[in-house]
């Protein structure tokens, strides 16, 4: 299994390396943001979860095109209401999104950007109920997007703000009982593994952050010529 993963990564690197010379200009934006996630769970009823977190985002464009590639990863900490177990929230959430991105120049230093793609999230909770320790995991899949504004302070440095949104509709949950054998050993037993029907997770996440621009034109480095 490990060999297969390494082989796949090596193949991907070779493909991307072989494609690189075909582009005369490579332009990448890398940013880190603070995001406040407003999450709504919809099941038999609805429940709000506040989820502050940090986001890593990449936009990549080739040959001065306005359409390109978009990726983001988000690590957030959904709030749990005091005294409640996992039904009141989750301890943390990791999220990955991949898809096409776009940009539109509004001025010399100001531009609009956005992305839309497939979103995957992993939510984790650990809690105690009636004296028994539990771990709960939710894998969820859906669609997500980003719409923001970027302002170039320098050729290589910028600030940005915007709004991310997500709609997760395919969900699978796992639940485990946890027994501590000793200080270094924990035994867990799976008690639930099932698709969650009638459940959706909707998120709206405003963000603000800073970023760095990376340009490469043939053998030249720096901001591309107009």
Search tags:
226 residues; mainly beta; 1 helix; elongated
Number of domains: 1
Q: Can you give the mean pLDDT?
A: 80
Number of strands: 10
- In the CATH classification, which architecture applies? Beta Barrel
Apparent shape: elongated
CATH topology term: Porin
Q: Main sheet? A: 8 strands, antiparallel, barrel
CATH class: Mainly Beta
Class derived from helix and strand content: mainly beta
Question: Gyration radius, to the nearest Å?
Answer: 21 Å
Low-confidence stretches: 1-23, 81-86
| SSE series | HEEEEEEEEEE
The spatial strand order of the largest sheet comes to 1-2-3-4-5-6-7-9
Describe the structure.
It is a single chain. Helices cover 8% and strands 68% of the residues. It is mainly beta. The chain has one domain: Porin (Beta Barrel). It has an 8-stranded antiparallel β-barrel with strand order 1-2-3-4-5-6-7-9. Strand 4 (92-105) and strand 5 (110-129) form a beta hairpin. The protein is elongated.
Short description:
The protein has 226 residues and is mainly beta. It has one helix at residues 2-19, and strands at 25-42, 46-62, 67-76, 92-105, 110-129, 132-152, 157-180, 186-195, 200-217, 220-221.
Map the helices and strands.
Blueprint: H1 2-19, E1 25-42, E2 46-62, E3 67-76, E4 92-105, E5 110-129, E6 132-152, E7 157-180, E8 186-195, E9 200-217, E10 220-221
Antiparallel strand pairs: 1-2, 1-9, 2-3, 3-4, 4-5, 5-6, 6-7, 7-8, 7-9, 9-10
